[in-house]
Amino acid sequence: MATMFGKKTVAEDESQYKRLIEECTIGPIRLGIIIRFSDGYPVFLHHIYAEFLAAEYLSEHDNRDFVRQIYQKMLDGPNIHVRRLFDSFLCDGLELHQAVIEENLEQVEHFCVKKCEVLDTEDKYGRSALHVAASYCYAEETFNTKNCKILETLARYMEQRQCDLEVRDSLKGRTTIELSSSGADCLTDNDNGNDRDDGNKSSNGNGNHNGDNVNSNDN
Q1: DSSP-assigned beta bridge partners for residue 168
Q2: Lowest mean pLDDT among 2-16, 38-52, 161-175, 201-215
Q3: In whole angstroms, what is the distance from residue 119 CA to residue 206 CA?
Q4: Alpha carbon separation from 152 to 5, 87, 134, 183 (Å, rounded)
Q5: In this structure, are residues 128 and 158 in contact, taking their beta carbons and an 8 Å threshold?
Q6: Rounded CA gap, 152 and 112, in Å?
Q7: More confident residue, 142 or 30
Q8: How does 11-39 read in b/e, with b if 16+ C-beta sit within 10 Å?
Q9: Are 87 and 101 in contact (CB under 8 A)?
Q10: How far is the C-alpha of 37 from the C-alpha of 126, rounded, in Å?
Q11: Three-class SS of residue 197?
Q12: How many angstroms separate the CA atoms of 211 and 201, rounded?
């Protein structure tokens, strides 16, 4: 967390953070994934380790206000891969949600037709698959034609199934209707030939923590 988002993000768990730092200075943890420390920050063998551990930590955190605050930082370009990992942790075991996160339109259509009951499932923050799809549609870094088609497909099948679209998730505090309205612009843009990317935009996975210049060795 400190490596990804700065030391302020671990202020409330400072004693635990110090303990973990001590544990990581020697032994198998350091030998396995940490190559050195710089200004109190662990520098990982590869940045994906920092991203994975930060996402896992947040997905299990009890302070939802804290998680919401960090989630906003995940919407920034450098942290988009952390967001996918975080969403994947929250949606563990939810097939339709995972298909949305992986941008697998074929799987989304399969579940909508063959296992339509999964349209009603929610993750631990009360998000339906439509919540997740809409959030990927209106974010600049994850905007592409495929995500918009996934959003359109889910919205159509959920309306047919008469799913409750007024449920507010506890991560963004929005209903699927509000989120879909935000993401609806991408559908209009696509219809007008104004897609903002080529459908293949992806994160380079090189995040950093706010206000600091500690980088991982990606060799």
Answers
A1: 175
A2: 201-215
A3: 34
A4: 33, 20, 9, 10
A5: yes
A6: 12
A7: 142
A8: eebeeebeeebeebeeeeebeebbeeeee
A9: yes
A10: 38
A11: coil
A12: 26
Spatial distance between the Cα atoms of 21 and 58, rounded to a whole number of angstroms: 18
Query: What one-character-per-residue DSSP string does 129-176 give?
Result: HHHHHHHHHHSGGG--HHHHHHHHHHHHHHHHTT--TTPBPTTT--BH
- State pLDDT tens for residues 132-141: 998 888 666 6
Tell whether the torsion through CA atoms of 148, 149, 154 and 160 is positive or negative. Answer: positive
Give the closest residue to 123 by CA, choosing from 162, 172, 75.
172
Let me know if 182 is exposed, middle or buried by CB neighbors in 10 A (0-12, 13-18, 19+): middle
Check pLDDT > 50 for residue 28. Answer: yes
Tokens of 56: 């896992």
Q: DSSP for 62-85?
A: S-HHHHHHHHHHHTSGGGHHHHHH
Q: Are strands 41-44 and 34-38 parallel, antiparallel or unpaired?
A: antiparallel
Cα angle 115, 157, 90; round to 5: 65
Backbone angles phi, psi at 38, to 5 degrees: -135, 115
